[in-house]
Amino acid sequence: MLNGLQSTSYPHDVVKRSGAIVPFDGGKIRAAVTRAGAATGEFAEAEAELLTSQAMKVLNHRFGAKAPHIEQIQDVVEQVLISANHFATARAYIVYREQHARLRRDRERESALTHPAPPDPADDHCFPGPARRGRCRSAAS
After folding, report:
1. What is the 3-state secondary structure (H, E, C) of the chain?
2. How many Cα atoms occupy the beta-carbon half-sphere of 91 within 13 Å?
3. What is the greatest pairwise CA distance in the chain?
4. DSSP β-ladder status, 21-23 and 13-15
5. How far apart are CA 23 and CA 4, in angstroms?
6. How far apart are CA 20 and CA 13, in angstroms?
7. Which end of the chain is less enclosed by CB atoms within 10 A, N or C?
8. Is the pLDDT score of 134 beyond 80?
9. Which residues are paired to 136 by β-bridges?
10. How far is CA 62 from CA 55, 68, 73, 99, in A?
């Protein structure tokens, strides 16, 4: 059934968190839904296929051939899980997304601390050199 998901009527591309545009892959939605259902024990692979088809229909209706952002796709998956009364799986999926968002923020923060951006000379208030003799101007001037 998934082979039919990669139809021309679905989005052709997806906007990743980095802003990169990559080809749309409906199999990734199915894999996420299947893993979420297995984690909670609420449903098996056959139901995951049906839920994936429903998510694909919603994506087609909302975005057509436009490239949705990955977060928008995940929002649709949440909505489909809730509308199918798979509340435990929807909650687990939401918590999983929140945990991974927190991990991404922590990695970005850590990266910023270990690899700080070079100083911007325009922000520098000190003007070394013979004319200034290393004196600093105040931030207000």
Report:
1. CHHHHCCCCCCCEEECCCCCEEECCHHHHHHHHHHHHHHHCCCCHHHHHHHHHHHHHHHHHHHCCCCCEHHHHHHHHHHHHHHCCCHHHHHHHHHHHHHHHHHHHHHHHHHHHHCCCCCCHHHCCECCCCCCCCCECCCCC
2. 7
3. 77
4. antiparallel
5. 16
6. 10
7. C
8. no
9. 126
10. 11, 9, 10, 27
pLDDT reported for residue 108: 82
Of 33, 26, 29, 31, whose CA–CA distance to 9 is shortest?
26
Question: Which token pair is 17?
Answer: 């968190």
Question: For the residues 13-36, what does the mean pLDDT come to?
Answer: 96
Nearest to 108, CA basis, from 96, 100, 118, 98 = 100
Residue corresponding to tokens 């690899």? 115
Residue type, 90: A
Q: Residues 45-69: what's their mean pLDDT?
A: 95
Task: Read off the pLDDT band of 4 (50, 70, 90).
Answer: very low
Lowest mean pLDDT among 11-25, 82-96, 101-115: 101-115
